[in-house]
Amino acid sequence: MASNTAALPTTHRALVLRDVNIDPKVEQVPVPEVLPGTALLRVLASPIISYAKDVFLGNKRGYPYPLPLVPGASAVCRVAALGPDATSLEIGQLVQFDCLVRARDAQDGPKQFLSAFFDGFSAASKKLMRDAFRDGTFAEYVRVPLENVFVLDESRLLGSPGSGGLGLKVEELGELVALPVPFGGLNGVDLRPGEQVLISPATGPFGGAACMVALAMGAKVLAWGRDEKKLENVQGILETISHGRFRGMVNVVKLYNDPSKDAEAIKTAAGGRPIDVFFDISPPQAAGSTHLKTGIQSLRHSGRVSLMGGLMGDVPLPHHFIMHNDITLKGKWMYSRDDLLLLIKMVETGILKIGREGGCSVADTFGLDDWKQAWDVAEEKAGLGEKVLIKP
Ligand SMILES: NC(=O)c1ccc[n+]([C@@H]2O[C@H](COP(=O)([O-])OP(=O)(O)OC[C@H]3O[C@@H](n4cnc5c(N)ncnc54)[C@H](OP(=O)(O)O)[C@@H]3O)[C@@H](O)[C@H]2O)c1
């Protein structure tokens, strides 16, 4: 039995996708029942990924998910009701819903999926999404696993600076959705303060987030990308955030997709300092680009590589270089629960700035009915720290 459900409505508004070739519609649907092991959350602000249109309209990315579906991934929410086995969460708390859902009874390695987005790689994750946690946060309410609810320190995050708060707005907390992804990769290869990390492409939402996270972790950043204007913008934002705390910590490198030109450009930008880590989060369109190989070859002996990109096919690797230089390659999908807990602490302490002081801006917010415009704008406004959100 759920606790404290008396004040809840019986129905709510949700954006329902019934067929990938037909536009989703806002429908009045039943509020999900709160079962043991779950929480019901009131969605306050749900950030939209830049490629939402590709995933849900025609599913150009071919992501597998069950239908019908309410799209919408990680979001800032308030706890509306709790299953009877909740022990720490409280009704009314400001929380982050994390969309990476893990099977609790998995026997041989993690079985996980991205809520309302991608049902994972196993029969177990597909079943879990289809039968238990299918619907997402482009809705007034969402039912989620208890362990996917992360309490946010509301008075610290939203409180006024005069009273010891960071003065953030709820929408600005949307940045908590992008930042854990690169943190999972960078923490996974143990990026250390004082190290130098090459990040590609640094101009996209996740690459830009990687630059912010790496700086907060104390590393020097080489921001790599094809578009010099966008790179200059990224450098400008990164160097001026936090009152110039990172001035001199960011160098940009133009990506030519020409191995010898790229190697030279990286060497020059590195300024004689070794490159300790190469972090890549390329989109599928970068398949065939030579930068992955060049990035690996730019590393010092015993350098580490974090592979987080969405490249679908196989890629050529510089085997001889990797072997002779003790290079570690580490793939990473998303992040661990501990990564997310740590990342939230970094934001709450202020070591990792979000909001205006962190160079992030809320580009736009939309109601549920304007979902189409919202997805268009999210595709356009995909620069560093830019966020487009739905506030259902
Ligand atoms: N491993 C994980 O857990 C995880 C989690 C989330 C996302 N991802 C993956 O990360 C990818 C990036 O996400 P995003 O939202 O930041 O990306 P995005 O908006 O799709 O694109 C990012 C950047 O890619 C660059 N780019 C496009 N085509 C390129 C090419 N041919 N060569 C080099 N760079 C190219 C663009 O930079 P310029 O136009 O400025 O060159 C753009 O700024 C996604 O596609 C997703 O698959 C992985």
TrEMBL record:
<keyword id="KW-0862">Zinc</keyword>
<dbReference type="GO" id="GO:0046872">
    <property type="term" value="F:metal ion binding"/>
</dbReference>
<dbReference type="InterPro" id="IPR011032">
    <property type="entry name" value="GroES-like_sf"/>
</dbReference>
<dbReference type="Pfam" id="PF00107">
    <property type="entry name" value="ADH_zinc_N"/>
</dbReference>
<comment type="similarity">
    <text>Belongs to the zinc-containing alcohol dehydrogenase family.</text>
</comment>
<keyword id="KW-0479">Metal-binding</keyword>
<feature type="domain" description="Alcohol dehydrogenase-like C-terminal">
    <location>
        <begin position="207"/>
        <end position="347"/>
    </location>
</feature>
<dbReference type="InterPro" id="IPR013149">
    <property type="entry name" value="ADH-like_C"/>
</dbReference>
<dbReference type="GO" id="GO:0016491">
    <property type="term" value="F:oxidoreductase activity"/>
</dbReference>
<protein>
    <recommendedName>
        <fullName>Alcohol dehydrogenase</fullName>
    </recommendedName>
</protein>
<dbReference type="InterPro" id="IPR036291">
    <property type="entry name" value="NAD(P)-bd_dom_sf"/>
</dbReference>
<dbReference type="Pfam" id="PF08240">
    <property type="entry name" value="ADH_N"/>
</dbReference>
<dbReference type="InterPro" id="IPR013154">
    <property type="entry name" value="ADH-like_N"/>
</dbReference>
<keyword id="KW-0560">Oxidoreductase</keyword>
<feature type="domain" description="Alcohol dehydrogenase-like N-terminal">
    <location>
        <begin position="37"/>
        <end position="151"/>
    </location>
</feature>
